[in-house]
Every structure is written in C-alpha cells, then in structure tokens.
Description:
This protein is of the alpha+beta class and 356 residues long. It contains 8 helices and 21 strands. A hairpin with a 2-residue loop joins strand 12 and strand 13.
Amino acid sequence: MHRTLPTAHPDLAAAVVACRDLVKRFGTVLAVDHADLEVRAGELLALLGPSGCGKTTTLRLIAGFERPDAGRIVLAGSEVAGAGTFVPPERRAIGVVFQDYALFPHLTVAENVGYGVRDRQRRARRVAEMLDLVGLSPLAARHPHELSGGQQQRVAIARALAPEPAILLLDEPFSNLDAALRVQMRAEVRAILRAAGATAVFVTHDQEEALSLADRVAVMHAGRILQVDEPGRLYAEPADRFVATFVGDADLLRGRSDGREVVTPVGTLSLGEGAPAGEVEVVLRPERVRLRLDGSGHAFVRDLTYFGHDQLVEVVLDGGQVLRSRMGPSRSFEPGDQVSVVVTGPVLAYPADEAR
Ligand code: ATP
C-alpha cells in the first residue's frame, strides 16, 4: 500500500505545538529539513528515528534551545519562533526532562520539584500535589544521590510538570535506566502523564519504546518527518519503505507487480489497495511468513532463535535471499530442514527505485 504523506493541519491554533516548515542547519548538515508537526492537547507524541536523524534538534527547536533557520513554531496559540520572532526557553510554557535528569544535587526532592514554581504561595501545595502524583511523598526530604534511577526520573518529571507547562519535552527519557527498569518506567511515566493530563513529546531511537508508549509517533529520517501516525497505523500502513523497515521487523523481497498481485520468489502474493505497479520491493513481516516442511520446497532453515513465547526461524531461499518467520514456540524445525514458504494476507510493496 502506498499512501501520500499526511498533510499538515490547517489550523495552527488547534494544536498545543505546531511546527511549520522548520529548517535547522549546522554548517553543511541539514539537521531538520522542512519539518511540519502538530502536537495535540493531552497526547504523548514520540519523535522516533535513527541516530543523527534530527530528533533532538527538533525537540530543542520547540524548547527554544536552538533557533530555526526558517519556518515557525506556534506554542499554545502564540508564535515563539518565526521570521523576526524568537522567544527564549525561559519564557516558553515548556517543561523539560533531560536525558541525565539534571537534578540539583544540593537540593532535596521537594526543593527540586518546587524550583520552577515562582508563586511562593502556591509552591508548597504544588510540590505536595506533584510528589503525590509521582508517588514520592515519603522521599521529599532526600537528596538526588539517595534515590534510585527510576525515582530520580520521577523527580525530574515532577519538577518539569510543577509550573504547569503547556507541554513537556523529554529527551531519551529512558536511556539512563537498565533494561528491566526501562520497561517498568515506561508504564509508570505513561500513567503519570495521563493522570496529569499532560501534553508531551519524547525523543527515542527505540521503536518498541515509541510504539508502546506514544499515542502518535513521528518517524524522522535524515532531517525529514516522514510520517506521523498512531502506532497501529504506522505498523500496518507505513508511508514509505524507510518507515516500513524501521518500524517493526521486515525483510524485503524483489517482485513484479501489476498493482493487485506481485510475483515474488515465494509465489504470487496479493497486494493492498493503491499498491504500485512495476518492479517493487515487498515488505514481509516475520509474523506473516509461515513455513511448511516440504521435501520439494525452495528454501531451507538456516537458524532458529527461541524466545519462550515465540521463536524466530531464518530461512534461505534458492536465490540466497534470507527471510525470517516468527512462529509459536511449539513448532519445531531444525537447521537444514527443507521448507516451503507461505505468506499470509496482503503485503505492502514500494517502488524498487525508492530503495536508498
Ligand atoms: P541521536 O539519537 O544520536 O541523539 P538525533 O536524531 O537526536 O540523534 P540530532 O542530535 O538532532 O540527531 O542531530 C542531527 C544532525 O545534526 C546530526 O548530523 C548531528 O551531528 C548534527 N548536529 C546536532 N547538533 C549539532 C551542533 N550543535 N553542531 C553541529 N552539528 C550538530
């Protein structure tokens, strides 16, 4: 299925943040290349992409830590960056959670959380509310070095939310945590942001993190925002070949398409609506690839990785092409088994000349 890219929302004021045609260069590097992005009230949006694609720069442009070379940013209905306009970070209604949390080491948890609340009358109440929200009331008098990584992260979020920003910006918020804690904190952070009714943008290069945490995901590549969509749609209807292969596991197979069916080395497969005709690359998700023991099959099993809940089986086709099949744990294949490959359901295809 080949879709056109999502078009920008016409009403800048309807979004908490709206970026229009943003450009940021560092010397000859085009870090952000004409990016359009809206963040809706109450949503958690992930900026996802490989290292160096411009995610952090986009976040820093929204925060005001960088000035765009072109384009504009509207935050909570006011232009904060544009031709002749630049509002510095401290005057933008933003809260920032840095990768290393950047807590003040000499201040207690409560003092950290209250730091940005200017109104002294409100401060104590707001600190109590925020500590309650993140479940750290009993630790109010501790210092950051007396906290675990997960607790430090919750303090950083409470501190950023305390002044009631229009939007919370989080830069790789889980990268400082070990793998097990990362998964636990994802759910906790999501629950905290939901309970606070916060609008938030977070940067990640981890597709699982983006898909499991965000309401919508913006996929970036080489400075461009390629697609902004809900996780399920991103996975099922990727806008281009890059998104198809970056989000979720996929193997690519060359084929010849008439727009409805595609002839490939694993047979003739049906295509989704709007598929291109001609030479194409077919995207095969491992969970859609089935194997059958078959003495006259055109593939053999090369490797198996067992995960307990499922397993991944690697097969090599006659032509040398490698495909992966994800299947339940009870099926048993052995390396060297001769198999035939069956692909279930319609597949995605992209023009072969889109390859980069
Ligand atoms: P990562 O996941 O590795 O942090 P990223 O997607 O956040 O990557 P950015 O940090 O936004 O990427 O960088 C985008 C591009 O701009 C990269 O090529 C990077 O080297 C370059 N860049 C970023 N900041 C600067 C800077 N201050 N000076 C020069 N080049 C920069």
